[in-house]
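Quick one:
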Amino acid sequence: MSNYTKLALHIGGVWLESASGGTLDVINPADETVIGQLPLAGTAELQQALDAAAQGFKVWKRTSAWDRCQVLRRAAVLVRERHEGMAQLMTLDQGKPLAESRMEAKAAADHIEWYAEEGRRAYGRVIPARLPSVRQNVVREPVGPVAAFTPWNFPINQAVRKIAGALAAGCSIIIKAPEESPGSVVELVRCFVDAGLPAGVLNLVFGTPSEVSSFLIQSPIIRKVSFTGSVPVGKALGALAAQHMKRTTMELGGHAPFIVFEDADVDAAATVAVALKHRNAGQVCAAPSRFYVHASLHDRFVEAFTQRAAKLVVGAGMEASTQMGPLTKPARVRAMQEFVADARSRGAQVVLGGERQASKGWYFPPTVLTEVPEDARIAFEEPFGPMAPMFRFDSFDEVVARANQLEFGLAAYVFTRSLKTSIDISSELETGMISINHFGLALPETPFGGIKDSGHGSEGGSEGMDAYLTTKFISELGQ
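Output:
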């Protein structure tokens, strides 16, 4: 525990190391040891956070876009200075390799700077009037206090997008961060606080997820809800928000197709596929999880993919040699075992992995399945782990139909040398993001979001700012 941070809530400018909701053990998934005690908010602290956000909004919305930008830029500087400590905390409680944690922590500063500058450009417009002496203006204003809910798989990445977007727009925010991986989020919030953010503008809570979400979303103080997580929970929170006419951004689960056409570079496709599939042990909403390979290349691709995946070093994230860490919680290990058992029972072949490894720690190895039938759970349920089911296809129309057959629509990946195929598949795939012949998603300046059951709205890019702004039309007759 000596290497872990002191966990606390942050409400109204005050750090609270104890709260009425009790405490929760924070576990290192690499060895199952307790590394920290997390205070949980009860209704008393949640109401304090709501009151603080209401007061903070009054101050922050009147702060000029220029001054808000300066605070955010100072926060970005602090994140860069402190990223190594934040990365180590993330690896300790979330499990990913330290190299991945470092990239995530460093990237947080880029996101903050992007929104800092976008906040200075929340432009309105003038609409030519039909009558003389009439001026018609459209202005953009902050929507109000925000309730944001972030997941455990990318604790900094998911939190910083919501925090920076809300703050740049002039909103206050209460962020309910993940109980499984809280350490790095505490230190991220500390960077904003130390940068000079006024009290109440940014509030951090932890607690029982269903209780926190219900309490915050139903409050009249909250005007906007942003959630990243599973489809079932997102639908429940979206329905609750709709009852109270709250604006929402929902970034939900995915089951991304990875399509390899007959003219693709097999080695390049396999290299990218293995890297994307096993990043964060496959616990990525936009990870490729259905591999559709043209029948003429199927066996070559499976061989190339399997050879690369078999060489990945699986171990504790703090070890320098580790390329894939443990899963974050034991429920994910059980889910992997269930997916394998179900696929095997339906005739699928396990080419690589398939069994839990190590007696201590929540490890599951890279797993490759072939001859997977369409009725196997892995074919239509998001695995959220290091599992790669392989499917053959014969024609363009067939793979489009199969890629679009599920209600997920977050991300898709395509490999082809044909410009025509690239253009045509981009038009046909029902998904919020498509990356062709490389990985090009999730940069601060680009929108990140899905369609269908994968949610609505975007984070990142100018769309990420729009989510926290309302439109006001003003028509004025000069007297």
